[in-house]
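Journal club side-thread
Mid-discussion, someone asked how the predicted structure for our own chain would compare to the paper's figures. Pasting it here so we can look after the session.
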Amino acid sequence: MRFRTLILILGVTLAVSVIGLFVFGFEGGFGGRGHGMGAEIPRSFWLVLFVAPLVVAVVVLGYVLVFPEFSEDKAERKLPSAPAVKKGELALDAVLRVLNDDEKKVIETLVAEGGMMLQKDIRWKTGLSRVKTHRILFRLAKRGIVSAEKYYNTNKIDLADWLRKKEKKP
């Protein structure tokens, strides 16, 4: 949507600029006397009519080049697909396959402790720094793997319900 709007603005400004250049190029064209009005339109007006849209077009092009995410439709973007869960495999095993080593360490610690721990305890059990633990838990929460709830001076971390349940066997 934004991309189409930017293209429309670019097209209109370039069209106005070309018309302004065309009119500016002729000595006696519109720059001469008005049609029976006796008023003279200065040549600088036509120069501005050429230059201003050209500047807008350059700014729009620069904007599209600097912020390329607007040039893609969000609907057309493909999100990475989740790994296929093999028959009989737990969802937790599938999640562990795609996590990095520190994230795996945090999830395995949570699972070993029953799925619920305080953030400060996760820090001590895993041996990670406070900041690194926070960043890992933030990424996991963003993905829906864990949830965090404020608990006094720390956070209570819960493993997602869909990771605690075992797959049904047919």
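Post-session note: Helices lie at 2-25, 43-66, 91-98, 101-112, 119-126, 130-143, 161-164.
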